[in-house]
Amino acid sequence: MANVNLVKERYIWRLPVRIYHWINAILVSILFLTGLYFASPLFSAPQGGEATWYHGMAWLRYIHLSSAYLFFANFIFRMYWALFGGDKYARFGGFKPWKFKWWGKPFKEQMASYLFLTSKEPHYMGHNPVAAIMYFIFVLCGSIIMIITGFALYSENNPGGFLAVLFGWVIPLVGSSYNLHSIHHLTAWLFPVFFITHIYAVVRHDIVDRTSVTSSMITGYKVELEE
Amino acid sequence: MKKIETFAGVFKARGVERRDFLKFCSLISVSLGLAPALVPRIVHAMEHKPRIPVLWLHGLECTCCTESFIRSSHPIAADMILNMISLDYDDTLNAAAGHQFEEIRKQIMEEYKGKYILAVEGNAPLKDNGVYCMVGGQSFTSMLKETAENAMAVISWGSCASFGCVQNAKPNPTGAVPIHKIIKNKPIVNVPGCPPIAEVMTGVITHLLTFGKLPELDRLNRPKAFYGTRIHDKCYRRPFFDAGMFVENFDDEGTRKGWCLYKMGCKGPTTYNSCSTIMWNEGTSFPIKSGHPCIGCSEPGFWDNGPFYTRLAEVPFVASDSGADKVGMYAVGAAAAGMAVHAVGTAIKKAKNDSDSNPTQEG
Ligand code: HEM
Ligand code: HEM
Ligand code: SF4
Ligand code: SF4
């Protein structure tokens, strides 16, 4: 693998994917940090003065909730692109983890490689199957859970309102408002866990495969190599 | 004993002035969130509608609901219960006893078939055929089913009857379940709280009397008028929450200044009840007003939701002593450690691969 020649640059991540990716990365970070903070606020407002002068918590909630709407819109946008974009590297395509066949050779080979069971390093221009399943579990399912529980939490502010009609059923489903907070809070931790593995995997692939994958999410280009 | 057939009749017999009676009616209409135009309807119903007999059963409970009810802020409300409800059947307040008492229950069930209300305080243990709660030689569970048979509607008083409360907190040794798990074919209104606020209780009864049906219920079958919003959304300390001014200790400056109790574990943000509006003890105060965080007593499973003085301390469905942040931090730690180990593996593999291949070529 050390002897490689650059064959050509290939355009993989089209603009919608890159835009989604970075907006999502920024918003997830904001959502996680603000959420964690107002769940257990570390600092108090300065002693002295009137409560009406300060809006620390209210602002954080405002930031969390406005980011949440953008996050939701961005998510819908990516789903649209996956379903109707006709983009070879961004659609769901053959991604069918509920089918036994999907977990076949490509997945096993990639997994074996990650577990050092083989010295082969499979190459993919798009997502490899292990990466795909990670995105599916952590980002797709994670986002859906955060969106549903998040809007249900938000609907509590205005009982009987629009959001409560749409998402109010979640509370009896999970048992109580307390459980709802717990689920939203617990699921939030999927994202830092994903973040660590994701960054590690990207950097590692760059070092091992040298396909310039790290910058590919900015430029859109990956290099194709030949041994 | 001569029966008095309307509420107004009872009031009159007790020497309550009409003025007080009208005051009571408007108070109830306000607490139910009804338009002032509906007050005459309440008055009319109170004066003319035949009273609805209430059979009040006690299962596994502590009687705090009864205690709360008889302390309804309005003296008439207290009268209402003592004269209208307990007269028929209530283990705690009845004069009759023993078999004579059980006879009354059976008699009402026959006489007022489909017209009486079954009010239940406490819940029913299902384990070992319900031996953990026996009333007059009968298991409470079977008594409950029997009495519900001909009832017009069921009121589940308090968190016990509504959601289970302390009896079905983990590990729930007696297999206690809330009423709606046993009675499926009757309209049920949950009136949670440990205990529920007296005015809420009288409000529910008055609504039933006036309109002949249960008040509008939310998704957990609680009357919307009283359980529609969270404590947090109506809390007078909310400005301090929004400002981020918190009590950090029960003896600090913030306590004296009445700041928000969020960091003292206040469950107000996850609790639906009327404490922050109707308040307790004739509208005198409520826990937060007297400087104590809400413990979420009207919420399902509140005993299992961790210590009272820590917010979201436990994720109830994961394990005890499992704060979400603790679980999350372990997961992140494990991921980081895993990646670090993997990085070492990768380095070894790469070094091996590199030395296997042609060393003169770069890269
Ligand atoms: C919270 C932060 C992040 C989240 C939630 C996230 C999420 C994702 C998702 C969902 C994908 C799949 C893209 C798609 O098909 O739409 C992806 C791919 C990718 N991300 Fe991130 N990302 C984050 C941070 C980053 C950062 C900081 C980098 C920069 C090093 C990065 C680099 C990449 C690259 C290179 C890919 C393509 C990898 C592949 O072939 O599968 N990501 N990321
Ligand atoms: C990646 C996505 C998200 C993350 C990481 C995240 C994280 C968090 C965290 C950690 C909390 C604190 C929970 C608690 O302890 O009570 C929280 C609360 C909340 N989140 Fe999110 N969240 C996300 C998405 C959303 C979305 C899409 C919404 C939708 C509106 C939302 C709405 C809320 C609301 C309403 C609260 C409660 C605020 C309060 O208690 O005052 N979140 N979030
Ligand atoms: S004291 Fe409790 S209910 Fe009141 S604002 Fe603070 S957290 Fe909310
Ligand atoms: S403030 Fe909270 S804990 Fe206290 S009585 Fe009201 S709902 Fe129950």
SSE layout and pairing:
The complex is a heterodimer of chains A (227) and B (363).
Chain A lengths: L4 E7 L3 H25 L16 H29 L20 H10 L14 H27 L6 H6 L2 H5 L2 H12 L1 H20 L3 H7 L1 E6 L1
Antiparallel strand pairs in A: 1-2
Helix pairs in contact in A: 1-2, 2-4, 4-7, 4-8
Chain B lengths: L6 H7 L4 H14 L7 H10 L5 E5 L5 H6 L5 H11 L3 E2 L7 H14 L5 E5 L2 E2 L8 E2 L2 E2 H9 L4 E5 H5 L13 E2 L10 E4 L6 H14 L12 H4 L3 H4 L3 H6 L9 H5 L66 H33 L7
Parallel strand pairs in B: 1-2, 1-3, 3-7, 7-9
Antiparallel strand pairs in B: 4-8, 5-6
Helix pairs in contact in B: 2-3, 3-9
The complex binds protoporphyrin IX containing FE (2 copies) and iron/sulfur cluster (2 copies).
The site of one protoporphyrin IX containing FE has 22 residues of chain A, from helix 1, helix 4, helix 8 and helix 9.
What does this structure look like?
The complex is a heterodimer of chains A (about 230) and B (about 375). Chain A is mostly helical. In chain A, about 60% of the residues lie in helices and about 5% in strands. Chain A has nine helices and two strands; from the N terminus they run E-H-H-H-H-H-H-H-H-H-E. Chain A has a two-stranded antiparallel ribbon. In chain A, helix 2 packs across helix 4, helix 4 (about 130-155) packs antiparallel against helix 7 and helix 4 (about 130-155) runs antiparallel to helix 8 (about 190-210). With about 375 residues, chain B is of the alpha/beta class. Helix content of chain B is about 40%, strand content about 10%. Chain B has 14 helices and nine strands. Chain B has helices at about 5-15, 20-30, 40-50, 65-70, 75-85, 100-110, 140-150, 160, 200-210, 225, 230-235, 240-245, 255, 325-355, and strands at about 55-60, 90, 115-120, 125, 135, 140, 155, 175, 190. A five-stranded parallel beta sheet of chain B has the order 2-1-3-7-9, sandwiched between helices. In chain B, strands 4-8 form a two-stranded antiparallel ribbon. Chain B has a two-stranded antiparallel sheet with strand order 5-6. In chain B, helix 2 packs across helix 3 and helix 3 crosses helix 9 (about 200-210). The radius of gyration of chain B is 27 Å and the shape is globular. The model of chain B is unreliable at about 360-363 (pLDDT under 50). Chains A and B meet through helix 2, helix 7 and helix 8 of A and helix 12 and helix 14 of B. One protoporphyrin IX containing FE binds next to helix 1, helix 2, helix 4 and helix 7 of chain A. The site of one iron/sulfur cluster has 14 residues of chain B, from helix 11 and helix 12.
